[in-house]
Amino acid sequence: MSALERIDQAVKSNPVVIFMKGTPKMPQCGFSSRASQALMACGEEFAYVNVLADPEIFQDLPQYANWPTFPQVYINGELIGGCDITLEMYQKGELQQMVKAAMQSNAAPEGDAA
Fold first, then answer.
1. So what family is this one in (predicted)?
2. Domain ranges, ordered by start, for the chain
3. Cα gap 97→91, rounded to integer Å
4. Residue 109 predicted with pLDDT over 80
């Protein structure tokens, strides 16, 4: 399975997934840390992919949704955005509503989605 296929599978099989540098408990960059903290603050489980652990995903993810940076947050198969957009949505209360709605329509285990 190609990296793009693995990315597509992670996006489509998880209601909420973040592609980040590191993990939510051990983030490897400030942007990934802040975005994953916003998702954790929503109170729902979410999947993650550590792009540093998979060089092919790290290389191919920017082409997947035409978004050049990390982290990337997907809810219900749609790219929400990176750190700034995720934090802005959280501050407005939009992220919490989107995450809760996604989790109500799907049930997914927490953990590494790759």
1. Belongs to the glutaredoxin family. Monothiol subfamily.
2. 3-105
3. 12
4. no
Rounded CA gap, 47 and 114, in Å?
Answer: 9
What is d(CA 114, CA 105) in angstroms, rounded to the nearest whole number? 22
Q: Is 75 left (phi over 0), alpha (psi -120 to 50) or beta?
A: beta
Could you list the residues known to form a binding site, using ranges: 29
Which residues contribute to the annotated binding site for [2Fe-2S] cluster?
Answer: 29
Cα–Cα distance between 28 and 10 in angstroms, integer? Answer: 20
Cis preceding linkage at 71, omega within 30: yes
Distance (Å, rounded) from C-alpha 38 to C-alpha 33? 9
> Which class does domain 3-105 fall in?
alpha beta
Tell me the average pLDDT across 87-104: 97
